[in-house]
Amino acid sequence: MTKNLVVIGAGMASGRMLEHLFDTQPGAWNVTLFNAEPRGNYNRLMLSPVLSGDKTYAEIVTHDTDWYEGHGVTCRFGEKVERIDRAARIVHGENGPVPYDRLVIATGSNPFMIPLPGHDLPGVIPYRDLEDTERMMGLGAKPGAKAIVIGGGLLGLEAAAGMAARGVDVTVIHVMGHLMERQLDEAAGYLLKKALEAKGITVLTSANSKEIMGTDGHVSGLLLDDGTELPCDLLVMAVGIRPNVALAKEAGLAVGRGIHVDDAMITSDEHILALGECVEHQGAIFGLVAPLYDQAKVAADTLGDTPAIFTPKEVATKLKVTGCDLFSAGDFAEGDGRDDIVFRDPARGIYKRLVLEGERLIGAVMYGDTADGAWFHGLIKDKTDVSDMRDTLIFGPAFQGGAQSDPLAAVAALPADAEICGCNGVCKSTIVDAIKGGATSLTDVRAQTKASASCGTCTGLVEQVMALSLGDAFEVQTVKPMCPCTPLTHMDVRRLIKSRGLKSMAAVMQECGWETSCGCASCRPALNYYLLCDWPGEYQDDDQSRFVNERMHSNIQKDGTYSVVPRMWGGITSAAELRAIADAADKYNVQTVKVTGGQRIDLLGVKKQDLPDIWADLNAAGMVSGQAYAKGLRTVKTCVGTDHCRFGTQDSTGLGIRMEKALWGSWTPAKVKMAVSGCPRNCSESTCKDVGVICVDSGYVLHIGGAAGLHIQGTVVMCTVKTEDEVLEYTAAVLQLYREEAAYLERMYKWLDNVGLDHIVARVVTDADSRKALADRFYYAQQFMQQDPWAERTKPAFRNLWQPLADLTLEAAE
Amino acid sequence: MTNWTDIGALEDIPERGARVVKTHIGCVAVFRTIDNEVFAIDDACPHKGGPLSEGIVHGRSVTCPLHNMVLRLDTGLAQGADTGAVNTYPIRVEGGRILLDTAKLRRAQVA
Ligand SMILES: Cc1cc2nc3c(=O)[nH]c(=O)nc-3n(C[C@H](O)[C@H](O)[C@H](O)COP(=O)(O)OP(=O)(O)OC[C@H]3O[C@@H](n4cnc5c(N)ncnc54)[C@H](O)[C@@H]3O)c2cc1C
Ligand code: SF4
Ligand code: FES
C-alpha cells in the first residue's frame, strides 16, 4: 500500500531527497510537496549567474512540471504550511489540510536582517530567492543606479559582483577587517578586495552601519558610525542566515539553533524527518549544499527503512564571481603542531596557504590559481599521509614524483629560458650572460638585467643562479632581512611600499611575499610605522601592531604599572599646572613623582585601569600627553636664554616652545629629542640631541645626529640659519627626510652614518625646493598626527579597553 | 566538572589583541587571534612576570612586552631558545559570546 509522504519546502535538499526516493522506492510513496515560493525546485546556487546575466532562470530549474507530474507529486506551490498537528498527523496548509504517514521538514533558512533603524523600509532586501534576484536585476535598467550591500561574505560579494556586471554602482560594507573572514585569511582577503575594486566595486572594510535612511517611504541611503552617508536606491543585506525552525518549534519538536536530528535525519518525533539548512546535527548547522546532499540520501534511505548514517565532511567554498578565483577548504587557523606552507607570487597575484597537522593536510586557502583546489580538498577529506610530498606539496599534483630536494640542483635543472624574475621578465640565460660579461655582485646583475630589481622576491633565486655560475667566487651578500617573515631588508620594503603604492599591512605582506600569515612582533610595528609615514591620512594606525607603550600611551614599568608624563612645552610650567599634577598624584596614589632629564614631571606607578581618569584630569587642566613613550618627538629642552641669562643671545625658551608646538605628535623611526641653548655655553646640552640648536649673535647653528644613551655621540653641524622661521623649516625638513629614509628603530645618528652628511645637506640645505617639499610633506602629515592621544582615549568607546573584561573575583567562591 | 562562564562578547577584544579577566588565582589574559580564535593563559610571563595581555599577538603566539619572550597561546609553552610555560585555561566562543571554564581555574598546574 502506498503511504502518504508530505514534504514542506521544495528546495535543494528535499529535491535531492525526492530524486533518491523515486530511484530506490518507485511507487512506494504518495507525495505532497508544499513550497512557500510560487515555484518548484531550482538551483539556488545559480541565482548569482542569473543575476550577473550569465544564465537565465529557465536554465537553473532543477525539476519542471513534467518531472513532478511524472512522479505523481501533488504540488502545492505558493502555499505556506501554517501548522503541524502531530497528534492527528495532519499538516495544515493555507489552502487546507493533508494527512501524513511520514513528514519531511525542509524549510531551509531565513536571511538574518540586522535590526538597524530603517531596516523595514521598502528597498531593503535580503538575497535568498528569485524575487530578490529580480529586484537587483531591475536596478540595472535604471541609469546611474546605486546599490549598497551590507556583508562581505560569499553571498554579499556575489550580489555585489552581479549588480556591478549590470552597470550598477555598488558599495560593499563589511564590518570585519577583511572580506570573507570565515573562509579567507587576511592576505587572500586583500587580493579579493583588489580584484573587486578593479570591477568598479567600492569595498569598505571595518565599517559599521548605523542607520538606514529613507526618503518618501523608500530607502535612500546608509549612515555609517563614522558619520559617512552613502546614497543608494537599493540596499541588500547579506549578513548571515538563521535556520527556519518556526513550524517545528511550534509543533513542539526538539529545536536548538536548528531542528534537532539524529544520524538518520529523524527528529524528536519518529514520524518526522528534517533535512537541509533548517536542521542541527550534533551541534552543527549548515550553509552549503554539499553536506545537504548527503543528508538527502540518508533521509531517503531512512524512509525506505534502510539503515543509513549521516557523517559531516569537510566542505570547500568557491566564490562564483568571474575573475576572482578563490578556494578555501578545511581548517586554516594556525595552531600548535600545525605548520603553514605559504606560496605567494606577487607578479601574478597568486596566494596559496596550506595548513598541515602532523602528516596530514587539514586546510587550504587559495587565490588566483585554484586549479589544484580539488586535489587538495581530496587530500583533506581522505586524511592522506602527505609526509613524502611535503616539500613540494604546495606546487600541486603536477609536481609530485620528481621532487627536487636540493634547491641548487633544482635551479641547475631549470632550462635557459626559465623565467627567474617575473616582474621584469628576466630569464635564466640573461642572468648567466650578464655574469659571463663580468657581473660579480647582485647589484651588478640588478643594474644590468633588472632581475630582482622590482619586487625583490626572486632575490634568492637570482643569487642561486649566480652561485651556480660563479661557483666559489660568489659570496651571497649578507644583507640583513627585516625579520624571519621575509628575506627583504627594511629598505627593500620601504621602497616597495612607495613604488607599488601598498597601503595596508595585508597588501605589503602579499606583494612582498611574506612567509607568515600575519607577521611577527618585529615586522608588524615597523610596517605600521612605514605605512603611517608614507600614507598620511589614508592608512589607519593599527593599535595591535604597536608595542605596549605606544598602545597604552604610557610607559610600562617592571611591575606592570604605568608612568604618566604630561607635556611641558619647552620645559616651562606654571603654578596651576603643578597644582593639577599634585592633585592627580594624590588622587591616583602615584608612588613616585620624578623630575626627568627632559625638563618635565613623571608620575610613576599608575594602575592601568586608572589611566583614562588621570588623563582626563590632566586634560581638564590644559595638559596633553608628553608622548614620553613614543618613537616620536619627546622633548625640546631649553635654557632661559635672553629672558633671564646675561649670556643669552636669542630667545631660546620661546624658540623651544615654538618648535615643540610645531613638531609634537609626529611618529618617527625612533625617539627624537631636541634642545635649544641660548649661547654656546650650551646649558641645555644641544650637542647630544637628535636635533640641537645653538643660538649665536648672528642666528642659529643647527646640529643633528647626537645621542646620549647606550652610545654617546656628539652632533655634527648641518648649517647656520638667520631666523626662527628658518629654524622651523629646516628642522621639519630634516625630520621628514629621516622619517622617509631611516629603518624602523634606527636613531637619527645611525641614519646619518648610513646616508652621510652630504646627502642630508644636499636635500635640506643646498636645495631650497627639496627643503620646502620635505617641510610641506611634514606639515601635511602633522594635521593627522597632532591629536592628543589622551583626549581621544578618554572617550567612552575607548575607555572599556582599559578595564578587565570580567571580574570573577566578585563571584561567590564556593 | 566544567563550569562555562560567560565573560563577554568576542567583539569586546580587539582582533590580534587581549583583555584580562580578574580571578581569585590572579589575572587571566584572554586573547583573540586574527582567525578569531580565543585563548586564555596566565597574564604573567614565566620570565619576570610581564603582562602578556599587553604583548603583540601574531599567529597563535604572543610576544611578551617586557623582554620579548614568545609564548604559544594554545600550549602556554615558550618558543625558540627560551624555556618556561604558563597555564592555559579551557575557553570557547558560542554565538559570539566567550565562555571560560572557571572550574579549571583552581586546579590548573603548569604542564
Ligand atoms: C544566492 C545564493 C548563492 C549560493 N551559493 C552557494 C554556493 O556557491 N555553494 C553552496 O554550497 N551553497 C550556496 N548557497 C547555499 C545553498 O543554496 C543552500 O545551502 C541550499 O539551497 C539550502 O537548501 P535547503 O533545501 O535546505 O533550503 P532551500 O533551498 O532554501 O529550500 C527551502 C524551501 O522551503 C520553503 N519553505 C520555508 N518555509 C516554508 C513553509 N512554512 N511552507 C512551505 N514552504 C516553506 C522555502 O520557500 C524554500 O523554497 C547559496 C545560496 C544563495 C541564496
Ligand atoms: S646656554 Fe647660554 S644663554 Fe642659555 S642659560 Fe646657558 S649660558 Fe645662558
Ligand atoms: S617578563 Fe616576559 S620576557 Fe621578561
TrEMBL record, chain A:
<dbReference type="InterPro" id="IPR016156">
    <property type="entry name" value="FAD/NAD-linked_Rdtase_dimer_sf"/>
</dbReference>
<comment type="pathway">
    <text>Nitrogen metabolism; nitrate reduction (assimilation).</text>
</comment>
<dbReference type="InterPro" id="IPR036136">
    <property type="entry name" value="Nit/Sulf_reduc_fer-like_dom_sf"/>
</dbReference>
<dbReference type="Pfam" id="PF03460">
    <property type="entry name" value="NIR_SIR_ferr"/>
</dbReference>
<dbReference type="InterPro" id="IPR041854">
    <property type="entry name" value="BFD-like_2Fe2S-bd_dom_sf"/>
</dbReference>
<dbReference type="GO" id="GO:0051537">
    <property type="term" value="F:2 iron, 2 sulfur cluster binding"/>
</dbReference>
<dbReference type="InterPro" id="IPR041575">
    <property type="entry name" value="Rubredoxin_C"/>
</dbReference>
<keyword id="KW-0479">Metal-binding</keyword>
<dbReference type="GO" id="GO:0098809">
    <property type="term" value="F:nitrite reductase activity"/>
</dbReference>
<feature type="binding site">
    <location>
        <position position="679"/>
    </location>
    <ligand>
        <name>[4Fe-4S] cluster</name>
    </ligand>
</feature>
<feature type="binding site" description="axial binding residue">
    <location>
        <position position="683"/>
    </location>
    <ligand>
        <name>siroheme</name>
    </ligand>
</feature>
<dbReference type="GO" id="GO:0020037">
    <property type="term" value="F:heme binding"/>
</dbReference>
<dbReference type="InterPro" id="IPR045854">
    <property type="entry name" value="NO2/SO3_Rdtase_4Fe4S_sf"/>
</dbReference>
<dbReference type="GO" id="GO:0046872">
    <property type="term" value="F:metal ion binding"/>
</dbReference>
<keyword id="KW-0001">2Fe-2S</keyword>
<feature type="binding site">
    <location>
        <position position="683"/>
    </location>
    <ligand>
        <name>[4Fe-4S] cluster</name>
    </ligand>
</feature>
<keyword id="KW-0274">FAD</keyword>
<dbReference type="Pfam" id="PF18267">
    <property type="entry name" value="Rubredoxin_C"/>
</dbReference>
<feature type="binding site">
    <location>
        <position position="645"/>
    </location>
    <ligand>
        <name>[4Fe-4S] cluster</name>
    </ligand>
</feature>
<dbReference type="Pfam" id="PF07992">
    <property type="entry name" value="Pyr_redox_2"/>
</dbReference>
<protein>
    <submittedName>
        <fullName>Assimilatory nitrite reductase (NAD(P)H) large subunit</fullName>
    </submittedName>
</protein>
<keyword id="KW-0411">Iron-sulfur</keyword>
TrEMBL record, chain B:
<feature type="domain" description="Rieske">
    <location>
        <begin position="5"/>
        <end position="100"/>
    </location>
</feature>
<dbReference type="GO" id="GO:0051537">
    <property type="term" value="F:2 iron, 2 sulfur cluster binding"/>
</dbReference>
<protein>
    <submittedName>
        <fullName>Assimilatory nitrite reductase (NAD(P)H) small subunit</fullName>
    </submittedName>
</protein>
<dbReference type="GO" id="GO:0042128">
    <property type="term" value="P:nitrate assimilation"/>
</dbReference>
<keyword id="KW-0411">Iron-sulfur</keyword>
<dbReference type="InterPro" id="IPR012748">
    <property type="entry name" value="Rieske-like_NirD"/>
</dbReference>
<dbReference type="GO" id="GO:0008942">
    <property type="term" value="F:nitrite reductase [NAD(P)H] activity"/>
</dbReference>
<dbReference type="GO" id="GO:0046872">
    <property type="term" value="F:metal ion binding"/>
</dbReference>
<dbReference type="Pfam" id="PF13806">
    <property type="entry name" value="Rieske_2"/>
</dbReference>
<dbReference type="InterPro" id="IPR017941">
    <property type="entry name" value="Rieske_2Fe-2S"/>
</dbReference>
<keyword id="KW-0408">Iron</keyword>
<keyword id="KW-0534">Nitrate assimilation</keyword>
<dbReference type="InterPro" id="IPR036922">
    <property type="entry name" value="Rieske_2Fe-2S_sf"/>
</dbReference>
<keyword id="KW-0560">Oxidoreductase</keyword>
<keyword id="KW-0001">2Fe-2S</keyword>
<keyword id="KW-0479">Metal-binding</keyword>
